[in-house]
Amino acid sequence: MEQAVSRPGEPQASGSKTISKPNPFARLGKANVKLHSRVADQLGLAIVRGDFKPDQALPPELQLCEMLGVSRTAMREAVRGLVAKGLIDSKPKRGTRVRHPTHWNHLDPDVLRWRVEVTDTETYLRKMFQIRRATEPEASALAAIEGTEEDHGRLKADFQAMIDAGADNDAWVEADLRFHRSIYLATHNEFFWPIGQLFGFGLRQMFAIAAQGSHRARAIVEHGDVLEAILARKPDLARAASLTLLGNATSDIDRIRHSPTP
Amino acid sequence: MEQAVSRPGEPQASGSKTISKPNPFARLGKANVKLHSRVADQLGLAIVRGDFKPDQALPPELQLCEMLGVSRTAMREAVRGLVAKGLIDSKPKRGTRVRHPTHWNHLDPDVLRWRVEVTDTETYLRKMFQIRRATEPEASALAAIEGTEEDHGRLKADFQAMIDAGADNDAWVEADLRFHRSIYLATHNEFFWPIGQLFGFGLRQMFAIAAQGSHRARAIVEHGDVLEAILARKPDLARAASLTLLGNATSDIDRIRHSPTP
DNA sequence: AGGTTGATTTAATCATACAATATTACGCCA
DNA sequence: TGGCGTAATATTGTATGATTAAATCAACCT
Q1: Bridge partners of residue A95, in order along the sequence
Q2: What is d(CA A37, CA A41) in angstroms, rounded to the nearest whole number?
Q3: Is the pLDDT of residue B123 over 60?
Q4: How far is it between the farthest Cα atoms of chain A?
């Protein structure tokens, strides 16, 4: 597994026109992740970070290859991936330019990860809660209507796992996230799914914090209310219960965020 | 944009060597669209159509290249794009397999387009309205809170365009779509944006139908109410107005859908 | 039976050549 | 001089072949 053949892709004495500004790409680590994927990470991160402004052309392919010490194949495949995520757009002679952020697939896991790495957590969490507040009550209502027995069974299991978690904070958070994701799945509306996946990223830490102390007991009751309404197939009740749950979760986190450093 | 235009659909004459199983890919038309993009279209369509079940491996690279008559470069880049959209996943020796639909980026414009081509309109529109009903009222409320003067100006302009459309149905529909998209933009929450883009695809036709006749007058009033509430920065009012608007739009379309063939 | 090794298949990466295509710059004619 | 077509040119797109790395399966050995 350990390959001694370290070919670090050294940006060898380029010589000619040594550019004054250090390139915005970090050295590519030797993970077991594929090369084009690592390249895409570097590029995506640089773009999301704002190293290249919208409508600005990236350096030409060959130059990028040189900067990162990879072949054109790897670079092209990385670029192709970013195009698919809506970050860039490439045409012959015109170059590959950054698209306006409105076109980015902000719900894509990679894009999300890059943004989390460069954006301040505060505003990002607020935005996550905004969309969650919009979708989750409706998703709960739909889960009550459209959810199959299997969906409902999974919800029950997730809820049980939350209870069983006991003092284990990690287990609690995982079960919590699963519970909410299961709600989105139970809508049987694929447009809800990507939003359900969203919270696994930035929210783990916050959930873990919010899960401590006395909130735990109330959280169980409120999750139970949502579950009960869904199982009883009462959409309006489910929507209401979900709203209550979210309201309290938000204020919990607000309170924690403004309290002395954890 | 890079919208694919080719609508070949031609079940081409199987031609030379008659293979036992007909390949699920249509002949690639020579549009001005790039080759890898057309290949991605074929593959994506075939996957979304269900020609390859989840967890099932596609034919190996070389075989796929042969089937579509393209080089490995083109094929690889197409595959890379589909991986980026979450449709497939490829590893050496394991092959490239279709991922479970829960992982697909259903809000991606291409994925959406493929689904629209193979899914029946009925259920698809219902799902669109479900998520729209979840997000748009909240988006309107946020637009009232977070929207800048520029955002509000754009909203006003879009509304004016709806009025100016007069008898021009296309102009009305375009303005209508722009109006709603502007609401999502005004949230200043990038997670809402992809949902706002969604409706430009399947809904144009429906909007055009629903825009006819007496509905037009009422629609203007209701859009005006939403606009007014947003400009006045009254989130609760905006949310309520948006809900009314959506409720009527839904029932309009319901009514139309169940009426004799348009 | 269980784990280890090795062979095999498949994707991943590199390198190179050539084609297509926007942009830019030039030169032509009115 | 000014507008317009046209050639030069830079940059991405496509094709091909060779080599490397990785996952699977089967045989093998304990």
Answers
A1: A91
A2: 6
A3: yes
A4: 73
pLDDT at A214: 63
Q: Strand D: which positions are within 7 A of a protein CB?
A: 9-17, 20-24
| pLDDT the model gives residue B6 | 38
Which pLDDT tens digit goes with each residue over B178-194? 999 999 999 999 999 99
First-last CA distance in chain A: 40
Strand C interface, protein residues by Cβ within 7 Å: A 9, 34-37, 70-74, 77, 91-94; B 32, 58, 60-62, 72-73, 76, 79, 90-96
Task: Round to whole Å and give the CA distance between A174 and A154.
Answer: 14
A14 or B153: whose pLDDT is higher? B153
Which residue of A107, A189, A198 is in closest CB contact with B127?
Answer: A189
Mean pLDDT, residues B119-134:
88
Give chain A's radius of gyration (CA, Å): 23
Q: What is the pLDDT of residue B4?
A: 39
Query: Is CATH 3.40.50.880 correct for B1-119?
Result: no
Q: Per DSSP, what are the bridge partners of residue A90? A: A96
Residue-wise over B48-73: b if at least 16 C-beta within 10 A, else e? Answer: beebbeeeeebeeeeebbeebebeee
- CATH fold match for the domains B1-119 and B120-258: no
For A151-161, how does the pLDDT look when each residue is reduced to its tens digit (9 = 90+)?
999 999 999 99
* DSSP states along A155-208: HHHHHHHHHHTTT-HHHHHHHHHHHHHHHHHHTT-TTTHHHHHHHHHHHHHHHH
SS3 for A76-99 is HHHHHHHHHCCCEEEECCCEEEEC
- Say yes or no: domain A35-103 is CATH 1.10.10.10: yes
State the pLDDT confidence band at B20, using cuts at 50, 70 and 90.
Answer: very low
Contact between residue B210 and residue B157 where contact means Cβ atoms under 8 Å apart: no
Residue type at B29 in one-letter notation: G
Minimal CA separation from A123 to chain B, in Å: 10
Answer yes or no: do B135 and A131 touch at CB < 8 A.
yes
What is the rounded distance in angstroms from the CA atom of residue B211 to the CA atom of residue A210?
48
**Whole-number pLDDT of residue A255:** 62
| Per-residue pLDDT, B233 | 98
B1, pLDDT greater than 60: no
Q: Where are the domains of chain A?
A: 35-103, 120-258
Q: Which two tokens stand for residue B81?
A: 């794009």
B213-251: burial string, b at 16+ Cβ within 10 Å, e else? eebbeebeebbebbbebbbeebbebbbbbbeebbeebbe
pLDDT at residue A20, rounded to an integer? 43
pLDDT score at A18:
36
What fold does the segment set B120-258 form as a domain?
Four Helix Bundle (Hemerythrin (Met), subunit A) (1.20.120)
